[in-house]
C-alpha cells in the first residue's frame, strides 16, 4: 500500500502537469493567432495604402497631361488669332 501512494501521487502530478501544459499551449496558440491576424491586417493596410498612392499618382499624372494639352491648345489658338488679327 505504501508503494502505491507515491505512484498515485506521481501519476497525478504528471496528469496535472500535462493538463497545465495543454492550457499553456492553448493560451499561447490563441495569442499567436491574434498576433498573426494583426500582422495580416497591417499587411492589408499597407497594400491598400500602396494602391491608393498608385491611384493618386496616376490621377495626378493624368491631370498634369490634361493641363499640358490645354496649355498647348491655348498657345495654338493664340497663334491662330494673332495671324487672323494681323491680316
What does this 3D model show about the protein?
The mean pLDDT is 90. The chain is mostly helical and 87 residues long. It has one helix at 4-86.
How would the blueprint of this fold be written?
Blueprint: H1 4-86
Q: Give me the secondary-structure category.
A: mainly alpha
Strand content: under 5%
Poorly predicted runs of 5 or more residues: none
Number of helices: 1
Rough outline: rod-shaped
Written as H for each helix and E for each strand, in order along the chain, the element string is H
**Could you estimate the helical fraction of the residues in percent?**
over 70%
Average pLDDT works out at 90
Gyration radius over CA: 37 Å
Instruction: Tell me about the largest β-sheet.
Output: none
Roughly how many Å apart are the termini? 129 Å
Structure summary, number of beta strands? 0
Quick gist of this model?
It contains one helix and no strands.
Keywords:
95% helix, 87 residues, mainly alpha
Amino acid at each position: 500500500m505504501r508503494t502505491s501512494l507515491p505512484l498515485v501521487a506521481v501519476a497525478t502530478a504528471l496528469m496535472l502537469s500535462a493538463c497545465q501544459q495543454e492550457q499553456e499551449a492553448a493560451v499561447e496558440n490563441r495569442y499567436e493567432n491574434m498576433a498573426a491576424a494583426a500582422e495580416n491586417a497591417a499587411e492589408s493596410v499597407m497594400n491598400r495604402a500602396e494602391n491608393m498612392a498608385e491611384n493618386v499618382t496616376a490621377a495626378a499624372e493624368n491631370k498634369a497631361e490634361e493641363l499640358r494639352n490645354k496649355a498647348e491648345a491655348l498657345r495654338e489658338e493664340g497663334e491662330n488669332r494673332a495671324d487672323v488679327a494681323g491680316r
